[in-house]
Design goal:
152 residues, Rossmann fold, alpha/beta, 30% helix, 4 helices, 5-stranded parallel sheet
Length: 152
């Protein structure tokens, strides 16, 4: 996997208290293949830690972006975009947005969310831990709640 990110600011939030269940050595790529996309956001508003984290992300991320990425905001990549929670915060602030996920259900949920927000996003159903994404450099790359599920 090779990406030119020398000019990118990379924000990563690790949430080790996620709803991850023991997958009995199953590949993480299969963990979101069921109809999870439609229910994912409602699970984040359950009143517990997930809702708190989603609320804090929505409050803090635009300020972090303003502080660390001043000037022109051209290209944004959301790696493991899921249902588009973080995508919906950052995509309107960039000229070009690419969102990648391994789950068609999650991509569909994100696509619905971004369509309602009238925000253009180039969605790609692929695993960029395995496949090359041939793109020019990005100004911002995000991945949220991915590393707790990833395997070596």
């Amino acid at each position: 996997m090779t990406y030119s990110t020398s000019n990118a600011k990379l924000f990563v939030l690790l949430n080790n208290n996620s709803r991850r269940t023991k997958m009995n050595q199953a590949d993480y790529r299969q963990s979101h293949q069921e109809e999870k996309g439609a229910d994912y956001d409602s699970d984040l508003s359950d009143g517990g830690l997930n809702q708190y984290m989603a609320s804090r992300e929505a409050d803090l991320l635009p300020a972090l972006l303003d502080r660390h990425l001043t000037g022109h905001r051209s290209r944004y990549l959301d790696f493991a975009c899921g249902s588009g929670r973080i995508l919906s915060i950052f995509a309107p602030l960039f000229e070009t947005t690419i969102a990648v996920d391994v789950s068609e259900n999650m991509i569909n949920a994100a696509r619905d969310k971004m369509s309602k927000a009238n925000c253009a996003v180039d969605f790609r159903l692929t695993d960029i831990t395995q496949d090359t994404l041939n793109e020019p450099p990005f100004d911002l790359i995000t991945t949220f709640r991915f590393f707790g599920n990833a395997q070596e």
